[in-house]
Amino acid sequence: HTFIRSLFMRTTFIMFYYTGGAIEHCERVQLIVATMRIRITNCRECIFYMAVNQKPLLIGENHNLQVGSL
Q1: Which residues have C-beta within 8 Å of that of residue 43, sequence separation ≥ 6?
Q2: Pairwise CA distance, residues 50 & 36, whole Å
Q3: Tens-digit pLDDT profile for residues 30-45
Q4: 38, 19 Cβ separation under 8 angstroms
Q5: Long-range contact list for 38-41, CB < 8 A, 24+ apart?
Q6: Is the pLDDT of residue 5 over 90?
Q7: Distance between alpha carbon 22 and the CA centroid of its chain, in Å?
Q8: For residue 55, what is the DSSP state?
Q9: Helices and strands, counts by H and E, the chain
Q10: DSSP-assigned beta bridge partners for residue 52
Q11: CA distance 54 to 13
Q12: What is the pLDDT of residue 20?
């Protein structure tokens, strides 16, 4: 697994996971994610473009997230 933690105000961040990963405590970022599964925890005002095999797991205090497919 790969973990991304505490990103703030990034324009675009590209991640490719093989088995899965977690994104935690991010704010105002745009992420492009291709993975088997993803866990998103305590993120605010983020945009996620995802290609995933399973539904994303949203945990904690997530606010103003936009989620779309690739």
Answers
A1: 23, 24, 25, 26, 27, 62, 63, 65
A2: 10
A3: 888 888 888 999 999 9
A4: no
A5: 40/65
A6: no
A7: 7
A8: P
A9: 0, 8
A10: 35
A11: 21
A12: 81
